[in-house]
Amino acid sequence: MKPRVGTQLEKVLLAGHFALTLEIGPPQSPNPEPLRKKAALLKGLGDGYNVTDNQTAVVRMSSIAASKIILDMGCEPVMQMVCRDRNRIAMQSDLLGASALGLRNVLALSGDHQKASAAGKLKGHPGAKNVYDIDSMQLIATIKGLRDEARQLGGDAIAEPAPFFIGAAWTPLGTPRNYRVLRLAKKIAAGADFVQTQAVYDVPAFAAQVAKARDMGLTDKAAILAGIIVPRSAGMLSYMDRQVPGVEVPAELIARMKQAKDTQAEGIKVTLELIQAVKEIPGVKGVHLQAIEAEELLPEIVAAAGLSPRPQV
Amino acid sequence: MIVAEWKPIPELLASLKGHKNILLVGCATCVAECAAGGEREVLTLAPVLKMGLKEQGQDVNIITKTLERQCEPEFVEELAEIAPQVDAIMSLSCGIGMQLVAERFIDLPLYPGVNTTSLAIREQPGLWTARCAACGDCMLGETFGLCPVARCAKSLMNGPCGGTRKDGKCEVDPDTECIWRLIVERAEARGRLEDLAKVRPAKDWSNSGHGGPKRMLREDLRS
Q1: Which of A113, A129, A171 to mutate to test the interface with B (most CBs of B within 10 A)?
Q2: Can you name the CATH fold of A9-170?
Q3: Do B161 and A136 touch (CB under 8 A)?
Q4: Complex ipTM, two decimals?
Q5: Among A77, A114, B87, B126, fewest CB within 10 Å belongs to which?
Q6: Range of the domain at B15
Q7: pLDDT at res. A120
């Protein structure tokens, strides 16, 4: 099969390799150096690098600008785009601009609600007006329209198609669980080429949802990358289990982290086991790996997981 | 009903600074139902304002009146006798009624006593929850009678985001139901889950305030 867009991520997936995406969060700063530092650390490690779009509704350097900066350093970005802050006019305009800058992977998301911005230590902007003119499903369809029909959402033509490899998010263990596979099916029907999932810790439960997706033929139509977040402590796992919607952490795993003498080493071990486990699930085509505030662990983990070096395709 | 809630008393006192004779006007319709601006609230608030202003060294006379409906000109006309006696009006109606009063008594400053917040129902005693966003493009027929425009924090059109809590509540507020969870459950109960499998296209918001201030014209009623 010929690549449609020709991004490294697309080519790796098309060639049947197990894909690896990582994440580079833009700084709360106008200075690109922190971003460049992260990109330099992770360069060559993954096939694509998610660049978040004001995640948790906290103001950061724009995803487009940050994506371009890391692209210039040789890290292929997966530009995230949320529906919270822009209407259909601004989003399509930014997509054309992103395309002009050479950004080719885009991940369409609803985005965290602005109330989340004040959840931590920051003041955030909980009084902001959100947009949600279109939702993530409709954004996926809009990007597909720009690519496949060279047409805007409103029906007007654009001079030439905007080539994007289209990504979507999936929360397989979210409530109501019966609907989650159907929602994935909708995203794929709307145009998603690849899917990154919420963090997986409960492998059997995740595998059961992937099996349903496989039965519906979804895993042939889009590449599912399982989300893996390196556990840092029992407390973190227990927090995620209780507080992060759609994340299920088995009690044994929390106990195991609690009992570990070397928490960091145990966290890495768990990560390697999770990567191996999801790799064995038919229909899972890669992982989206994050080490939150511990990116320096990633080179070691990626190597130990046998995911290094990345295939040259 | 249209739901409103009291503004903080200090804000009300600050807005009335410098006035001597104040008309405090309520409305016996929606804002009475939601206990924000009916006769009872007018009679409760008047002495509070009087006392609060007195503490700031401002002696005022407050005339109270509650109209049957502050959004109908014939009821607003009942204020014509009182208006010459006052130098300010504070209204406890929704923003609609307030504007009609302001328009009728154009020389008098009008201050809002409440914030109009939503189109809602009284779900339980003392609890009102939004039901409608007046979006101008009703989709209730496709969402099993539950409105995601008014009741989803992100007004999502195609199912729940990843933020539904384990107990089915919204991540934005632990006491608010994820409306998409309820829509899915209703669909399942009717054996119609596949109805929610269709991608719903981008909504046309132009029949709401997004299309410019709404003007509904019915030629058949204009003769």
Answers
A1: A113
A2: TIM Barrel (3.20.20)
A3: yes
A4: 0.95
A5: B126
A6: 2-117
A7: 81
